[in-house]
Please model this.
Amino acid sequence: MSDSAPFAHSLDAWLARQCGAHTPEELCARLARRRLELLNIRLRHAARRSRFYARRLAGKGRPLTSLSEVSRLPFTTADDLRRWEDMLCVSLSEVERMVTVQTSGSTGTPKRLAFSLHDLARTRDFFAVGMRFLIRPGQTLRVLLPGAHRPQGIADLLRQGLVPQGMAVATDERLAAVLLEAGEEKGQVPALREADMCGPDAADACVLLLLPQQLRGLLRCCPTALPGVSGILSAADWLDPDLRTAARQAWGIPVLEHYGSTESAFAGAVECPACDGLHWQALDLLPEVIDPLSGEPLPSGQPGELVLTTLQREALPLIRYRTGDMAVLTETPCACGSPLPRLERVLGRIVHGPDGIEVVHPPKGGGIR
Ligand SMILES: [Zn+2]
Model:
């Protein structure tokens, strides 16, 4: 029996432990109750401790009685992050990591996000359970996302989560750069050997964490076989479903997807091997989908703009943050057996133009830091 029984997997078992559910049947209701408690706590915390939310939430102090009532609250936008000092709910000395969000065409005041030690620990814990879909003790995770090596960055958080479970985490900036360039689909295709993929001392197959563009590059370099790699997680940008299918067919290994951004503290939602939608970090993020033009909430199953509320973020909570990502949510149980709602798929980035909206697939620019 696995250590996650009776739940579908470690991620559901992890959520169940935090909300007091003992069976999969209890999980949805207990999780919803705990999310509502966390949401009300966070709203109080934000209104009391940040000038920005004190103004935004003025007159809306009554506790919410259901999660759907979150739609009564005003949105937060990427532009609001320019006033990050007003949004901050902790003192600067309690900020463990500050990240500047790069945006195209931005002028003047930078947009920033701040994370406390607790905020980063929540991400670490999600990584620790979410990565178990792909990696087992004794294996190495090779993190190829640009910028992931920064202190308290993605690689550090993964290391903190995976090393205690007997896994190793390594970065390889050379391989990361080679694959990025190969993904641009111009120039010579570099030859890659197993040692390039897993490092010279690898005793076991490794798992790669990379950008979709690097996945494209890898497929150019190794079109038929990928020796030494047992699984791949694509993250930090929109993954073309055709690219994913081509990679799976070429290599016969799991190629899974992670949805996350700097705003979601790098974590977010991760696909399980059943490939039937992405499982949320459900006690940290409350997702909604809205009509990108009217702002009205849309039912599950309809495509719209993904809006995220952070349920446990201390330093700089986001309440109804408009991600600019077009997405579909699903409430049908996953093929893996999990009863929890998921992110069915991300369709691309929303661009507002003179003739309405358009969904495009540009790289986010700067990726994840
Ligand atoms: Zn699943």
